[in-house]
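Posting this for the archive.
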Amino acid sequence: MNELVDDGDHLSVTQCRLSDSYCRKMKTISFIGKPSNDDERLLTTESMHIGTGYIMQFQFVMGCGLPYSETVDNRVYLEYSTDHGIHWNLVIEPCLPPAPCESVHQGTMYDWTQFREWTRITIALPVATW
């Protein structure tokens, strides 16, 4: 059985802040306001060794119930890299119609319309992420 690891001390952030409180939760990492120079805003971890049975789990909210601009791509992408950040891929690729799918799903792309309230997300890390 794998040990539970809280990797909260091994995060690197770009254009965000640690908040004492956001949307009724204590100690959150928040991306608030427009990014400077339209740069990407990132939250990354140190390199991790993962394998069979490893999961990623986090609580997530976008906008705390407030709508986002429909003219901007406000989605959040959960990605991984196996080459020290040179290339990035979605942890789980979406499978949407008309593609043939065993089950239809959005992968690890998150849209504000689905996460107006805090939601716990649990993802079994696929072999490609090892």
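The beta strands are 11-14, 17-22, 25-30, 42-45, 55-60, 76-77, 79-80, 89-90, 109-110, 119-124. Confidence is low (pLDDT under 50) at residues 1-7.
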